[in-house]
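Subject: sequence -> structure tokens, single chain

Hey, anyone have a minute? Need the predicted structure for the following. Not urgent.
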Amino acid sequence: MSQEKVNRYKEEKANRKQILAKEKRHKMYMRIGGGLIALALVCWLGYSVYDMATRPDTSEVTINTTALDEYLGSLGTEE
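Reply:
Had a minute. Here:
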């Protein structure tokens, strides 16, 4: 059992540079991927806000003021 540990340690020590290089690449890929995801979210959010701000107002509100006009018209006349 102890000899297996020694052999594993020697193998790890011999390949330490390759192992560290692999770990560095993995960390770099994770940072790049996370950055791309964050950039995509920021761009999507910015586009959504811009689209909402520049969208023309298409809602038309129709108010029937006939009753109000008749009431105001009747105030001016005295019977």
